[in-house]
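re the bet — no i am not wrong, look at it urself. input seq straight from the record:
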Amino acid sequence: MTKIARVSITLPEEVLKAADRRAEELDRPRSWVVAQALRSFVSAVREPASPAYATDDVADARRRHITADLRLSAEERLRRAEELAHLGKLAGQRRAGGRRQIIGFDTYEDYYRWKQTRLAGE
């Protein structure tokens, strides 16, 4: 026999009404409809086995970088930042056509909206 636990949840009124209508259509209790919806959601949503794009590794590397930078004096951090800005400016001057950028989109629709917005601004 399945163990049962009671929970208390707060739902928007229209969601509760829809669940009640569905329960009546199926001649089932409201809790059965909610349990089925949760089962469906839980089976559809899977957490990735590992962090996407090695986020933990990137975060750790960034933390080490910041910790090392904070060991430097304020003057040394400023000098390095100015040097990096100068190198960035030199790299930009070497590139024909100026700055290059890679943009990714999750869907074609996202790309299309971006493209339309960009064309409208020109």
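see?? The first helix runs from residue 13 to 26. told u. also The radius of gyration is 27 Å. so pay up
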